[in-house]
Amino acid sequence: MDENRVNQVICGDTLRTLKTFNDNLIDLGITSPPYNKRENKKGWLVKNVVYSQASDNLPESEYQRNQIEVLEELYRITKEGGSFFYNHKIRWERGQLLHPMDWLRKTKWIVKQEIIWDRMIAANIRGWRFWQVEERVYWLYKPKGNNIIGDELNPKHALLTSIWRFPPEKGNPHPAPFPLALPLRIIYSVLDEKEGGVIIDPYCGSGTTLVAARILKHSYIGIDISKEYVNFSIERLAKYQDEIGIARAELEKHIVMKTFKQRKENGEFVGRHRKSTTVEKVDNPLLIFND
Predict the structure, then answer these.
(1) Which residues does 189 contact at the CB level (< 8 Å), separation at least 6?
(2) Is the Cβ–Cβ distance between 81 and 112 less than 8 Å?
(3) Which residues contact 11 (CB under 8 A, 6 or more apart)?
(4) Model confidence, pTM
(5) CA 249-162-189 angle, 5° bins
(6) Dist. CA 248–CA 68, nearest whole Å
(7) Are 78 and 84 contacting, i.e. CB atoms less than 8 angstroms apart?
(8) Which pLDDT tens digits describe the chain residue by residue (291 residues)?
(9) Cβ distance 118 to 163 under 8 Å?
(10) Which of 203, 227, 178 minimizes the C-alpha distance to 53?
(11) SS in 3 state form for the chain?
(12) CA atoms within 13 A on the CB side of 92
């Protein structure tokens, strides 16, 4: 049954749909759920967010409980050693700070890293606090046996640091799209040169994660409650080759000179008081895309 839903975009409620999948199906997941911004948060430059066929106005306790259930189902269907990247943000409601860690620590996932996404634009530019231009991406990890740390990243990916700077995607019918570069960076960094993995986005919106998976030669599963967004995602996937140029621009950033280990072995630069006299590329991240 699950095999028939790979490379599909499913229209349905996220939690109910996830419960129908078998265990240990997914290699990697990426999503940005509705933030429960109560549909009343807007600024001079950005309108309040209203999703198609979905409410972003739940009692906070209900919202957090739902997110915990969704994350637990995602944990169940993810393979051991697999990861899930969860994009969210810090919110304030009547002066109270609401942090994603409030509910992430109540799940089985190990929080491996918090990445700062610098969006370079504030949703609300009123001056009662510093303008919030960042969102958070939480790298969640499902341990494999007793290994609660997981494998190390290839240096060409790790050097991109834990602060990612790119603006939201423009010209997108979805009210809160992240850029294609974001899921591309995640998939390529975690799965490296591997192909044929299964990538899920349980709130797939306009299909950005699914397109990234398709470009990098992985299978995908998308879920969204909005028929409008599902149809848009399907149409976008059919034209995924139009976005390969954007993919190249991101993947060209994944390059490293000699690693620290190599420099040390060669007696080259190993500290700020010694300079290396040679520079050598050891990897080229530019992929050749063939369908």
Answers:
(1) 153, 154, 157, 158, 160, 254
(2) no
(3) 224, 225, 226, 227, 230
(4) 0.85
(5) 50
(6) 35
(7) yes
(8) 587 899 999 999 999 999 999 999 999 999 999 999 865 555 444 455 554 555 668 999 999 999 999 999 999 999 999 999 999 999 998 889 999 999 999 999 999 999 999 999 887 667 788 999 999 999 999 999 999 999 999 999 999 999 999 998 776 665 667 899 999 999 999 999 999 999 999 999 999 999 999 999 999 999 999 999 999 999 999 999 999 998 999 999 999 876 667 667 777 755 654 444 444 444 444 454 555
(9) yes
(10) 227
(11) CHHHHCCEEEECCHHHHHCCCCCCCEEEEEECCCCCCCCCCCCCCCCCCCECCECCCCCHHHHHHHHHHHHHHHHHHEEEEEEEEEEECCEEECCEEECCHHHHCCCCCEEEEEEEEECCCCCCCCCCCCCCCEEEEEEEECCECCECCCCCCCHHHHCCCCEEECCCCCCCCCCCCCCCHHHHHHHHHHHCCCCCCEEEECCCCCCHHHHHHHHCCCEEEEEECCHHHHHHHHHHHHCHHHHHHHHHHHHCCCCCCCCHHHHHHCCCCCCCCCCCCCCCCCCCCCCCCCC
(12) 9
Tokens at 175, concatenated: 């009210």
Ordered structural domains, the chain, with CATH = 2-254 (3.40.50.150), 257-291 (no CATH)
Tokens coding 214: 């398709």
Q: Residue 177 is encoded by which pair of tokens? A: 């799209």
Instruction: Read off the tokens for 132.
Output: 């919030």
Residue pair 107/138 in contact by the 8 Å Cβ criterion? no
The CA distance from 181 to 119, in Å, is 12
At residue 95, what is the residue type?
G
